[in-house]
Amino acid sequence: MNVCLFTFVDLYSKGLSTLAHILDQGAAFAAAKGASADDILEWRLVDDMNPLRFQAFVVINFSKQWSARAAGVEVPADIPSDLNFAGVKAAVAEAQSFLKTLKAEQFAGRDAVLHKANLGVMEPELPLGQWLTGFATTNFYFHLSTAYAILRAKGVQIGKRDLFAGGL
Question: Cα–Cα distance between 31 and 43 in angstroms, integer?
């Protein structure tokens, strides 16, 4: 499968802008209800699901790490798991800054390069184009959508247009 892997940099950057936007909407809602922005990071859809904090971390980490793998550059470390709201927002901005450092030529010809990743229960080796389109982006949007759903379930007045806060 041949894809233009560099296009995912813009896609992830827009998704990060959306994440920042919906987090801000959640923080404003929390403040109006007498809660702190840090409190929303522990909100969940249901008790046995990961909280908003986890959803944001996956969106941030996947945007940087899978772009780096596809570009053939050093993969950034996971963000710390104990960030407060301001730290999560800073991590979003840092991820966007990292994505701006990537150039189209770094991705050229890399769609068929094989990459092995340990997923805990298996360690498949797939072409980078397949990892980015089938695994990384699916997970990126799953966790971004779950962050949105958590906020909506708690009463934050966001709608479909907020998912395009980063642009089309």
Answer: 14
Which residues touch 85 (CB under 8 Å, ≥6 apart)? 23, 27, 36, 37, 38, 40, 41
Mean pLDDT in each 10-residue stretch from start to end of the chain (168 residues)? 86 97 98 97 97 98 97 97 97 98 96 93 94 95 98 96 90
Task: Show the CA angle centred on residue 146, arms to residues 144 and 152, nearest 5°.
Answer: 110
Q: Which CB contacts under 8 angstroms, 24+ apart, belong to 115-121?
A: 115/69
d(CA 62, CA 78): 9
Q: Which domains does the chain have, with CATH numbers?
A: 7-164 (1.20.120.450)
Amino acid, single-letter form, for residue 49 = M
Length of the chain: 168
**Which SS3 state, helix, strand or coil, does residue 106 take?**
helix
Amino acid, single-letter form, for residue 138: T
Q: Is the pTM of this model over 0.90?
A: yes
For Cα atoms 109, 4, 163, give the angle at the middle one, nearest 5 degrees. Answer: 150
